[in-house]
Amino acid sequence: MTTAVDPVVAADPAAPVVARRRHGSAFVPPLLVGVVGLLLWEAVVTLGRVAPYVLPAPSAIGEQLWQSREVVWRTGLASGGNALIGLLVGAAVGLLAAMVAARFAYLGEVSIPVAAALNALPIIALAPILNNMFDSTSSVPRRLVVAIVVFFPVFVNALRGLREVDPIHRDLMASYAARGWTVTRLVRLPAALPFVFTGLRQASSLAVIAAVVAEYFGGLQNGLGSRITSAAANTAYPRAWAFVVGACVLGLVFYLAALLLERLVMPWRRV
Amino acid sequence: MTSVVLEGVSKVFNAGRADEVTALTGVDLTVARGEFVSLIGPSGCGKSTLLRLVGDLIQPTSGAITVAGKSARTARVDQEYGIAFQQAGLFDWRTVQRNVELPLELRGSPRQERHDRAREMLDLVGLAEFAGHYPAQLSGGMQQRVAIARALAVHPPLLLMDEPFGALDEMTRERLQDELLRICASTGTSTIFVTHSIPEAVYLSDRVVVMSARPGRITEVVPVDLGPRTEATRQSPGFFAGITKVRKALRGDPVPAAEPLVAP
Ligand SMILES: Nc1ncnc2c1ncn2[C@@H]1O[C@H](COP(=O)(O)OP(=O)(O)O)[C@@H](O)[C@H]1O
Ligand SMILES: [Mg+2]
To answer: Which pLDDT belongs to residue A11?
Structure first.
């Protein structure tokens, strides 16, 4: 894999799998950092008398989180559902588009920079426009925003993987008189999987962000995003933060699910 | 009966550009059925190019190539040859067993036959117990042995091997040389074998084709007649005489037709 790498998508597909340790002990240092960070935060806010609208104490946020747990859970499920549907649709379309683009050398050549450029646009800005295109009880606009946001990293990464065939593999498949779809199925797709999962990992976090933030711009108000805006508008800052925490947890769940899927689908990368 | 015929073959890469390379010129070579022919020469003299031409992985700029009595292209489509390269080129996502099975799979062999044949070949290269491993779990030399097993698995009428033993230790190398000769003899396989090692070329071959670079061409064909190879062959005077002949040819010294044997 010595071809020039597009810096936009230059994340190393091998990184997370290789960096992984065999035991749960890998979780201890980050956990420790998190706990110490929370304690510091609490100390700074209470000792420094920081106003709650600037930064509420973690204890206040925790209290709100506990009180609103049912709402957080319900709205979290709504946002999570939107993110999941958008993610599945966007990833499927991105993967199919990459497979089509990979079949035609020229198409693949031109579509990577175009997709990378489009990916750099703030697609979330489309949310208000999409909201107005559907009626206010529809979940479609948010899912559409998620799908569009997800499409690009999946498409760009998958296309890169599909286009980079090891020259020896190409020669071998030629010597086996294998062509077209057989080569795609036996070589291109499996070789592209690490790239696809790099895209999916990026996409999984983006999906949650997009699903939550899209609600800031109106549309159906049943998710985490709408609760964050309404709590903030009512100056209930610890409550707003409680929903932000909910969104963070949701993002983490999506990311970990993508990691888990990656390990299940590519057992050979675990060895 | 001939297995491979090259007539007036030349290959120019990047023709008409500033980086034009004449990789091969005026190559005439015939490989008889069951014959073992080695290609030896300095790097860049076109050994790999010659092999890839025979395999129809690239096409000649001029000249004609016949494999098993057909055009090189038809022979490739009919899967008349097995090939192994200097790098193993295993498929990371397939276990060792399934890597060896792949060419059989693409020929439509039944599952049981595929499985048995792959086992047999892995036994041969001493890796039967690694059948369930993934390539990333093997050392470079072991991966190369898997690649050799994969090339042999289909029992092709023609074997094309590009420095396949380069990465192996001397012990394994000598054992695989003997195994390769045994398989080729028992199945009547014709072989074109690229190597950098003069002793290896002499030990394995019926004829050693000596090449030189810029432009790549055949400068000499050294026949080797050592009879059936045995333990004693590697110590025999004929073996050392062959080595000397090839070495001289590589240096460009003229070899008189009836050169007296040089004592070891
Ligand atoms: N695909 C290619 N494009 C351009 N030049 C090539 C290509 N393949 C080989 N060559 C050139 O052809 C010459 C012969 O190469 P090769 O057959 O690989 O030599 P050898 O295997 O004997 O070391 C070299 O000068 C090499 O740079
Ligand atoms: Mg070479």
So the answer is: 43
Q: What local confidence, expressed as pLDDT, does residue B46 receive? A: 93
Task: State how far the Cα of A171 lies from the Cα of B146, in Å rounded to an integer.
Answer: 17
Contact A169 B91 (CB under 8 A): yes
Per-residue pLDDT, B84: 93
Question: 10 Å Cβ neighbour count for B143?
Answer: 21
Q: Which ligand has the shortest distance to the CA of B216?
A: 1
Q: Please provide the distance, in angstroms rounded to a whole number, between the alpha carbons at the two ends of chain A.
A: 20
For residue A24, the model assigns a pLDDT of 62
Token code pair at residue A89: 């649709």
pLDDT at residue number A191: 92
ipTM of the prediction = 0.89
Does residue B101 contact residue B114 with C-beta atoms inside 8 Å?
A: yes
pLDDT at A217: 80
Evaluate whether B255 touches B223 at the Cβ level (below 8 Å). Answer: no
Residue length, chain A?
271
Q: Which residue, chain included where needed, has tokens 């899967």? A: B79
Q: How far apart are CA B21 and CA B201, in angstroms?
A: 27
Give, using CA atoms, the residue closest to atom 8 of ligand 1. B49
Task: Report the alpha-carbon distance of residue A92 to residue A87 in Å, rounded.
Answer: 8
* Residue having the nearest C-alpha atom to atom 24 of ligand 1: B44
- Asked if B64 has any chain A CB less than 8 Å from its own CB, the reply is no
CATH of A57-269, one of 3.90.226.10, 1.10.3720.10, 2.40.30.10, 3.40.50.300: 1.10.3720.10
Distances from the Cα of B160 to the Cα of A10, B37, B43, B86, B184, angstroms:
38, 10, 18, 11, 12
A residues 154-193 lying closer than 8 A (beta carbon) to B: 166, 168-169, 171-172, 174-178, 182, 186-187, 190-191, 193
Q: What is the pLDDT of residue B255?
A: 52
Q: pTM here?
A: 0.79
CA distances from B34 to B20, B31, B176, B242 (A): 36, 8, 18, 21
DSSP A36-80: HHHHHHHHHHHHTT--TTT---HHHHHHHHHHTHHHHHHHHHHHH
DSSP A9: G
With a cut of 50, list the residues of chain A below it in pLDDT: 1-21
Contacting residues of A for B83, CB less than 8 Å apart:
171-172, 175
Residues of B in contact with A177 (CB under 8 A): 76-79, 106
Nearest CA in chain A to B78: A177
Which regions of chain B are under pLDDT 70?
Answer: 253-264
